[in-house]
Write a structure and sequence with these properties.
heterodimer, A: 504 residues, mainly alpha, B: 712 residues, two-stranded antiparallel ribbon, 66% helix
Chain lengths: 504, 712
């Protein structure tokens, strides 16, 4: 009689989600019962829960766990690497939010609970092995994010942001859901593996159903990652939401959406699947177009922005365009690496913006940054690091991410897209350098009091800065973990395939 | 272990940079000096204790290497195996860099005494040591380049150390920009190497270069993008870092920095980085005769012109600066004629005597309360005995008086130039003539410096009033005694005199490690220096099929020996088992000729000294020709030909037209366009959710339509 584990093995695959969910509930309880003056603990509980989730991801890393819960949950490197990104993003977001919540007397417990549930949504998206699970994760994430975007209830801009995000988000979710339904109609399954088998064996009920289904899923995901022309919500929502929420939205949900982007388009609708070559060629062309459009729209409009949050919103559109190059190259590792680099530098930048914005996010215009360079030397220099990284200057994470993704794109033959991407990142330097010019070379007309920087901010900045330089200078370990250095890399099959087995 | 050599100064720099502000001078001095001392001791142990007993590698080179990390591997780009390596070449460099560096650190504790930001100075100085060691010990081009840029940065920071003085700030910028021009060449060269060879590891690149065919002499090879192009691109970098024509202009101005900096960075170590790089890449240069010719000509010309300018300068440090440029010219001349060992030999001896002379001048400046103009010195022999006698050793060394270090290295270069076979016919003779003339001039201007400074009458009070605004970056203004009345120079403290004494000993005897075969052979003294360095340089000379003898494993002895017998009669064959290959070209000339030329160069040196003594002893304030005093107006020409046009284009073109009209115009125009087009574009980002939804809907329709059309 073999040893019977206390839980079915399947549940191990769910450990990170369980850890974060319990944390969310514990925070709720803590917030309800802790005496009023002492609620700062919520953030620390959140951090502890995220550490536990991180440990369980690390544990799963070397385990080989078959698809769990009837193929609903896949456990492979794609999921685990993205899970690590989500946990990192959530952790930095917690650190970023602790002080502002305190300052503005916003309810911290609920905020961190929402953040935890959003993280659960992201984790489920990373592991989704089924369109239904994908949708579940996505909605869990979206609904919590809608609430977070409007977290400063008394602020009109905040309300506007939340409502817009909600309306447009629901609208685009409609596309996604309809796409899922059509795909189900065509393949008679929502399970990725079975969808693949159906396509491979030619057992499609009605071909156009699948085509439109894929197109609609693409639309839904493009909305979530904010690529042109489905980006229109981004600037308004990013600008209106509390800065710490914007930071989280730009890093976390975007990465989560890219995780399913990679899962669905790189793995499921891959041209390696028999009979799928046409479909793959079609989505490839469409994604190439969307990538180019996003880069251009994002960068060109970003140049004209005078509000730093709006500028970063357009920049995030451009970055989504760059990341799509990895999808084109059908190389999820480069997408994952790119999202990691983007997450750390973007979180860092938003942390600084949060610090400088003060209470109520009042100071987010570029003019508010005039001449602060020599008053808040440390903050300015750190912001400079993040801006240079976003612009893709060597020795920073941003450069390495672009290098990896453009290199894969080039090798996969998307020369035009890569050339446009490189030119675009040159253009982007113009607006990334603007805040620096303003900070160091512009005279300040209004009085300036350096903001108070507390320990959680220091921690968030330290993590981001170290990560930016670590990924920029010594990316080898991370790339090794992604198995990007394997000699068998060119034979796409092993890396790109869905983990099989255990599907009933 | 190699990591310890490198990291010790970094630790020192970090501690001083972060916490130095609160420390007293004594503690700062101890930290700064001991961090370099640790490096130096480790380096000495590595070279003498480990390297000498290490087994030679398959290519005959002894190496002590240490792997640091695999840097990155992304798809096809693979830059791995970052490490440090000590081989004979970097071994020699690391010994004198850490050794001389340590002495200069000690000297600086005395010289900088009382400076307001004492800690900042030593933090920079330690950082410089770290970068310089990276440059020397890195086992690939990229790590070398990190060091290369790093020392450039430190040089910039230290030249501009007295940043409140406009002169220092300008000099720092000038140095930085001149070096940028050169560094661009290095970057391109390294990229080209990576592109052609697929590696940037020195060992691999040199092995690759050795297998390449010899390139031809002429313009076509220069433009071909092969080894000649690589060599010339690298050499552009060398002209920047090592102050050669046309980029030498920054070095004299760099004297605005504190004198220990001039001694360490702008005489002994950093400026020789270019020579080091050329020697390190000798396998590439050997295959590129056009590049060698360029290197030799530039080196020879720089040596000569800088020496002529040196005669006409009044600032004691400027004289030494031009002297440095001139001596660096010698080193490149040696590289250009293929005498790499002689070049490095001169790098080393020059480090000894030039550091000595600079520190001596620092001691003089210190004793004179920051007076640098020789016109207001004189008769210092009386007051500064130790400084005088130690500087005398340096003076005789640079003049090439036998036994002194400079004699052996300089004579080696002259002889190799005369006898080289690496250059086409008339050039060896012309360059030799130029170099010999330079030797004479060197003796003259150094004698002038010594005579005007230490002999003759006291001229301390002849200084016109308001002299302070002619301010050559003298140090601490808080020192500012109103001198002129009853002013007495004083000898420097022990912390400054002891390093002088040690360097004086090295300047006298340091050349004995490289006694040429012709002198030492009879009494059984080898040219240890060349024998030690030989394997590193032999790599490039193993032209496949040329001599037939493959260097199969035998510590570089088989190939040179083959060369020996092939080229020369038996007279030289039995010399020593490891007879250096670089002697090979010499075999066509007789031993008598070598003796004759050696005698001639000694005569030139002595003549120069006697001439200088006789002339400047009588007229210490002889007014030099304006053309020379004004340095051939090179700065003015650069100003008019390059700097002004760039400024004008930047201001009138780039700023007023491109930036204001085009860029701003585009941004403003875009704004107007939006307004002009009515609400169409604006409508898109109107803030209304219904517009956004419509936008998304249109996008969706287009996308779905596209999917439909594309589907067969």
């Amino acid at each position: 009689m073999p040893y019977q584990a206390p839980l079915p093995r399947e549940y191990y695959a769910l450990m990170p989600e369980i850890a974060v969910s319990i944390t969310g509930i514990v925070i709720m309880m803590y917030d309800a019962f802790a005496p009023k003056g002492s609620r700062r603990g919520a953030g620390y509980i959140a951090l502890a829960g995220l550490v536990a989730a991180g440990v369980s991801v690390a544990y799963l890393w070397n385990e080989s766990i078959p698809p769990a819960f009837s193929g609903m949950l896949l456990t492979d490197k794609l999921r685990l690497f993205f899970d690590a990104i989500f946990i990192l993003v959530a952790g930095v977001s917690v650190l970023m939010a602790m002080q502002p919540l305190d300052d503005e007397r916003l309810p911290a417990g609920e905020y961190f609970t929402l953040l935890m549930f959003a993280t659960v949504g992201m984790l489920l998206m990373g592991g989704a092995g089924d369109l239904a699970m994908l949708f579940l994760g996505l909605e869990t994430l979206s609904i919590t994010t809608y609430v977070m975007a409007g977290y400063r209830r008394g602020d009109l801009r905040c309300n506007e942001s939340a409502l817009k995000y909600f309306i447009l988000g629901s609208f685009s979710t409609g596309f996604l859901l309809y796409g899922i339904a059509l795909t189900y109609g065509a393949t008679k399954s929502t399970n990725f593996l079975k969808i693949q088998q159906a396509i491979a064996s030619g057992q499609i009920t009605y071909e156009p159903l699948l085509t439109i289904g894929v197109a609609m899923i693409l639309i839904g995901l493009c909305f979530k990652v904010a690529t042109a022309p489905f980006h229109v919500w981004t600037p308004d929502v990013y600008e209106g939401a509390p800065t710490m929420v914007t930071g989280f939205m730009a890093a976390g949900p975007k990465a989560a959406a890219f995780a399913i982007f990679a899962r669905v388009f790189v793995q499921v609708f891959s041209p390696d699947v028999p009979n799928a070559a046409n479909l793959a060629a079609t989505w490839t062309d469409a994604v190439a177009l969307i990538a180019v459009l996003s880069m251009i729209v994002g960068n060109v409009i970003a140049i004209q922005q005078t509000n730093i949050k709006r500028m970063l919103a357009y920049s995030s559109i451009a970055h989504a365009g760059y990341a799509l190059v990895g999808v084109l190259a059908r190389d999820w590792q480069s997408v994952a690496f790119y999202m990691l680099t983007y997450a750390v530098m973007n979180l860092g930048a938003f942390t600084i913006v949060t610090i400088l914005a003060r209470q109520g996010d009042e100071k987010t215009e570029l003019d508010d940054y005039a001449g602060i360079g020599f008053h808040s030397m440390g903050l300015s220099v750190v912001l400079m690091i993040f801006m240079l990284s976003l612009g893709g200057i060597p020795l920073t994470a941003g450069f390495m991410g672009k290098l990896v993704i453009f290199k894969q794109g080039w090798q996969a033959g998307f020369h035009e897209v890569v050339i446009i991407g490189v030119l675009n990142s040159a253009v982007s330097l113009y607006y990334y350098l603007r805040p620096l010019v303003v900070m160091f070379f512009k005279e300040r007309e209004t009085p300036y009091v350096p903001p108070k920087v507390t320990a959680p901010f220091y921690a968030a900045l330290a993590i981001s800065v170290i990560a930016v330089f670590y990924l920029g200078m010594f990316p080898n370990r991370t790339l090794n973990a992604l198995e990007m250095n394997n000699a068998s890399k060119d034979a796409k099959a092993p890396a790109a395939a869905l983990p099989a087995g255990g599907v009933r | 272990m190699l990591k310890l050599i490198i990291l010790a100064p970094l630790v020192g720099a970090t501690i001083l940079g972060l916490f130095g502000k609160k420390m007293n001078e004594r503690l700062i001095g101890i930290i700064a000096c001991s961090s370099v001392a640790i490096s130096a001791l480790t380096a000495f142990y590595t070279v003498f204790g480990v390297l000498l007993s290490a087994a030679p590698g398959p290519d005959g080179v002894r190496r002590v290497s240490e792997h640091v990390m695999s840097w990155m591997r992304i798809g096809g780009i693979s830059i791995t195996d970052f490490g440090y390596v000590v081989d004979p070449l970097s071994g020699i460099m690391v010994l004198f860099v850490t050794g001389v560096g340590f002495l200069i650190h000690v000297f600086a504790t005395g010289y900088m005494h009382g400076d307001e930001s004492f800690y900042r100075f030593f933090a920079y100085l330690n950082l410089f040591m770290f970068m310089m060691l990276n440059l020397i010990l890195g086992d690939n081009f990229l790590l070398m380049f990190v060091g290369w840029e790093g020392v450039g940065l430190c040089s910039y920071l230290l030249i501009g150390y007295y940043f409140l003085k406009k002169e220092a700030g300008d000099a720092a910028k000038k140095a930085f920009i001149a070096n940028r021009v050169g560094d661009f060449g290095v970057v391109l060269g390294v990229l080209l190497i990576f592109f052609k060879c697929g590696s940037i590891n020195f060992q691999k690149v040199m092995a690759w270069a050795a297998t390449q065919p010899m390139e031809t002499l002429g313009m076509s090879a220069v433009m071909a993008g092969g080894l000649t192009t690589i060599a010339l691109l690298l050499f552009i970098g060398a002209t920047g870092k090592s102050a050669q024509i046309p980029l030498y202009v920054w070095l004299p101005d760099a004297m605005a920095g504190p004198t220990p900096v001039s001694a360490l960075i702008h005489a002994a170590t950093m400026v020789t980085a270019g020579v080091y790089m050329v020697v390190r890449c000798n396998a590439i240069f050997t295959k590129a005769p056009s590049a060698l010719l360029v290197v030799a000509i530039i080196g020879g010309l720089t040596a000569f012109f800088a020496a002529t300018i040196g005669i006409a300068q009044w600032d004691i440090k400027k004289v030494l600066a031009y002297s440095t440029v001139s001596q660096l010219g010698y080193m490149f001349l040696a590289c250009g004629v293929g005498a790499y060992a002689a070049a490095i030999f001169h790098v080393m001896t020059h480090a000894f005597f030039k550091a000595l002379l600079f520190l001596g001048s620092g001691s003089v400046i210190h004793g004179m309360h920051h007076e640098q103009d020789m016109r207001y010195m004189g008769a210092l022999k009386k007051y500064m005995k130790a400084t005088y006698w130690t500087m005398t050793a340096g003076w005789l060394a640079i003049c090439g008086i036998p036994i002194f270090a400079g004699f052996f290295s300089k004579d080696e270069i002259l002889w190799k130039t005369f006898s080289t076979t690496a250059l086409p016919a008339p050039f060896p003779m012309i360059l030799w003539g130029l170099a010999s003339l330079t030797a004479l001039l060197t003796a003259v201007y150094m004698t002038r410096l010594m005579t005007v400074t230490f002999d003759g009458a006291e001229r301390y009070d002849q200084k016109p009033a308001h002299h302070d605004d002619h301010g050559h970056g003298h140090g601490h203004d808080d020192h500012g005694h109103g001198h002129g009345h009853a002013f007495k120079p004083h000898e420097s403290p022990l912390s400054m005199v002891v390093p002088l004494a040690v360097l004086a000993v090295l300047s006298v005897f340091g050349g004995l490690v490289g006694v040429p075969h012709i002198l030492g052979g009879k009494i059984g003294v080898h040219n240890y220096f060349e024998e030690f360095l030989e394997p590193v340089i032999a790599v490039g000379h193993q032209v496949p099929g040329e001599h037939g003898a493959a260097p199969a494993g035998g510590h570089g002895t088989t190939a040179p020996a083959g060369e020996h017998t092939a080229a020369a009669p038996a007279a030289h064959a039995p010399a020593t088992p490891a007879a250096p290959a670089a002697h090979a070209p010499a075999e066509t000339h007789s031993e008598g000729l070598e003796f004759g030329l050696m005698g001639l160069s000694v005569v030139l040196g002595v003549t120069g000294i006697l001439l200088g003594k006789a002339f400047f002893g009588k007229n210490p304030l002889w007014q030099p020709p304006t053309l020379l005093e004004a340095k051939y107006y090179v700065d003015e020409i650069y100003e008019a030909a390059i700097i002004k046009p760039i400024e004008n284009v930047s201001r009138e073109g780039l700023w007023k037209i491109v930036d204001v009209k085009i860029v701003d115009g585009a941004v403003n125009g875009a704004g107007r366009l939006v307004a002009g087009l009515g609400d169409t574009l604006r409508y898109l980002q109107s803030g209304f959710s219904r517009t956004y939804a419509a936008f998304i809907f249109v996008g969706a329709v287009l996308l779905i339509g596209y999917f439909f059309i594309n589907k067969p």
